[in-house]
Amino acid sequence: MAARVDVAPWPELPPLALRDTVTGSEPQQATTVRCGWTPDEWRVLFHCADTHAWATHTQRDAPLYEEEVVELFVDPFGDLATYFEIEVNPLNAVLDLVLRRNRSGYAKDLAWQCAGLRTAITRTATTWTVEFAIPFASLTPEPPRAGSVWRANFLRIDRPTGQPRELSAWSPTRLGTFHVPERFGVIEFAE
After folding, report:
1. Measured in whole angstroms, how far is the alpha carbon of residue 110 from the centre of its chain?
2. What is the tally of helices (H) and strands (E) in the chain?
3. Contact 77/141 with Cβ under 8 angstroms?
4. Which of 49, 88, 95, 115 has its Cβ near the most Cβ atoms within 10 Å?
5. In a 10 Å sphere around its CB, with 0-12 CB exposed, 13-18 middle and 19+ buried, how is residue 140 labelled?
6. Full-model pTM
7. CA distances (Å), 177 to each of 40, 71, 131, 155, in order?
8. In a structure prediction context, what are the per-residue pLDDT tens digits for the chain, which is 191 residues long?
9. Would you state the pLDDT for residue 191?
10. What is the rounded CA–CA span in Å between residue 117 and residue 41?
11. Is the dihedral of CA 96, 99, 105, 107 positive or negative?
């Protein structure tokens, strides 16, 4: 799923298609994700078909989920007790937080910053692409090795003009929310 790379040769990595998070059907505007890794960082590429990519938020940790955004949820420990969320919108604004299980669900900690995170946006008239470079040291004390397994989900909120929002996910949650860690997929770090 995540192949080891020296640089991110995106065309050589297999794409994962996102599906409607409730029904599992193909979304109106497709999204694919590709993953790779180096000894120091996890590389993730979202490619979104979009006839009108839009956003207004430009500040770090603004409520990006109110507009169009791609999101990455990752639980490197696999215990579903804590997971990290990183969002990027078409203006390259970032929202990063950690969620920790408590008695009433999960508490959001917006004080966490993904140290060393790099993101880049490319836009055309019909697409937008987001590239993430996530240092392993910002997520876990020990970087993964070949064969390591993490839990994760890749997500998109699309808000087409004059239509209801569309939620899509790599591992559909079967609910109108992404925050269902039990539905996260499994990422294996391969050579």
Report:
1. 17
2. 0, 14
3. no
4. 88
5. middle
6. 0.94
7. 31, 12, 24, 10
8. 565 555 556 788 899 999 999 999 999 999 999 999 999 999 999 999 999 999 999 999 999 999 999 999 999 999 999 999 999 999 999 999 999 999 988 999 999 999 999 999 999 999 999 999 999 999 999 999 999 999 999 999 999 988 999 999 999 999 999 999 999 999 999 98
9. 85
10. 9
11. negative
Q: Which pLDDT does position 67 carry in this prediction?
A: 97
Contact 20, 168 (CB under 8 A): yes
Token pair for 33 = 């994700």
Write the CA distances from 138 to 97, 110, 117, 178, integer angstroms: 12, 14, 8, 22
SS3 129: strand
**CB contact at 8 A, 46 and 33:** yes
Secondary structure (3-state) at 12: helix
Burial class of residue 62 (count of CB atoms within 10 Å of its CB; 0-12, 13-18, 19+): middle
Q: Which residue has the tokens 């065309």?
A: 11
Structure-block tokens of residue 54: 């839009």
E strands within 50-173?
A: 69-75, 82-88, 94-102, 105-109, 118-123, 127-135, 149-158, 166-169
Can you tell me the distance from the alpha carbon of 74 to that of 86, in angstroms, rounded to the nearest whole number? Answer: 9
Spell out the domains of the chain, with CATH numbers in brackets: 20-190 (2.60.40.1190)
